[in-house]
Design goal:
This protein is of the alpha+beta class and 145 residues long. It has 3 helices and 3 strands. Strands 1-2-3 form a 3-stranded antiparallel beta sheet, with helices on one face. A hairpin with an 8-residue loop joins strand 2 and strand 3. Helix 2 packs antiparallel against helix 3.
Length: 145
């Protein structure tokens, strides 16, 4: 049996001319990969916020429709429409996220057709500056009680 010393298994870097030529290769690879990685990272963040804003718009239109269809004695159609629109705007302004200037949601006057209240909301989502903006919209319909 042969006795082995512990330092026989240590790895040492090769000391040839080849290693001195590769010293800058890691930096070059990092410089090539970094922009792609950052673009991917900011894209994920931007589209995650866009999906969050879509959920906020959906919940805001539901909240507005619910505020409009609740039964209150003596309410007219004009009061129903204004309360639905006001509740939708309030929910949007409290919860929407943006990376730039404040996003102003567009909530047209809701409609009542055959005892069904329909509330619609849209917002122009700008996202980060490197990605183009797009329109996010949501619509909810509920039957009047």
């Amino acid at each position: 049996m042969t006795a082995m010393r512990a330092d026989d298994f240590t790895l040492q870097a090769p000391t040839t001319e080849h290693t001195s030529l590769q010293k800058g290769s890691v930096l070059v690879e990092f410089a090539l990969i970094l922009p792609v990685f950052l673009l991917l990272l900011f894209g994920v963040i931007s589209f995650s916020v866009a999906l969050y804003n879509k959920t906020v718009l959906t919940m805001a239109t539901r909240e507005g429709a619910r505020a409009g269809v609740k039964f209150v004695a003596g309410r007219t159609d004009a009061i129903i429409l204004s309360s639905a629109r006001a509740a939708t705007l309030q929910a949007c302004q409290n919860n929407l996220l943006s990376f730039g200037p404040d996003m102003t949601p567009d909530v047209p006057t809701p409609t009542i057709l055959n005892n069904i209240l329909t509330v619609t909301a849209t917002v122009n989502y700008t996202g980060l500056y490197i990605f183009p903006g797009f329109l996010i919209s949501a619509q909810t319909s509920m039957r009047l009680e």
